[in-house]
Amino acid sequence: MTNTATRLITMIFLLQNQPNQKASELAEKLGVSVRTIHRYFEMLDEMGIPVYSERGPYGGFSLVRGYKMPPLVFSLEEAVAVALGTGIVEEMWGELYRESARGALAKLENLLPEEQVREVTWARASLVATGMHRADLKSQTPTLEKLRRAIREHRSVEMRYQTSQVPHATQRGLDPYALVHRWGWWYAIGFCHMHQEVRTFRVDRIIDIGLSDATFAQSPAFDLQEYLKHEMQNQPQIMARLRFVPEFAHLVAGNDSYWEAVETKPDGSVEATFASPTLEWAASTTLAYGPAVEVLEPPELRVMVAEWVAAIGKKYEKKQASSKKGT
After folding, report:
1. What does the CA dihedral 283, 286, 289, 292 come to, rounded to 10 degrees?
2. Taking the model in full, what pTM does it have?
């Protein structure tokens, strides 16, 4: 317990749960002196919290019978956690919950004592969560709003969805179960009418969406946390192995969570393995490192990267030839 506000709240709970406690007992539990405990009682009295004492061997300090601590009393850390939470909600949901988050924060700050307001102000200026989205949140807001409403009202939706594998959007019917934010993207999870199974859809790939009058009942057997836990395990994955040349071996460091395996070779090069959902994704990741890496396996990834590099090279060769003619 690192501050007065936390100790005061803890002392109230101690007295609420067990009346007739000695000052020495409370001092030991809170890690302060008996003199400090008496000072705390004076502070509680000033705050209007009814504490009384009884003399004698079985006496001690108690709260007035029937008194319960108001539900909106926070420790310093709890107040900071709630305040930071409103900031994260605003960052995550944007316009959908912006006013609600700011209103909740304003009410919270109006209830807090001055010490906690100062701590909250410091935390909001110094402990910031931002840059959570990899796509424009504002453009996704209408879609998120419809999905949120559909989930709340158990209504099906009709949407056009663009995957990365198919060049044109397809019409889908969906019973949306949940909205999930991870890896910088919003995802809608629900029962896909086309495939007759629960699937995941990236919200920024939904071209347009409309709520249906049809309602659905979510299967009681569906567990969102279990689905998320096993989703990646059930998807086909490509294991790609790259060789980082010695002068760029440092690029592997600091990304331990990304690599499935890392092995340093005697010549100073590093071989790193990562899992990819598609061959195209693996090729894009490989090319992001440019000449620092060479694909070792699988063979089809080596072929794809070589073809992409050749195609890119031809484009630049044409541009260079055109610029030379112009000069």
Report:
1. -130
2. 0.65
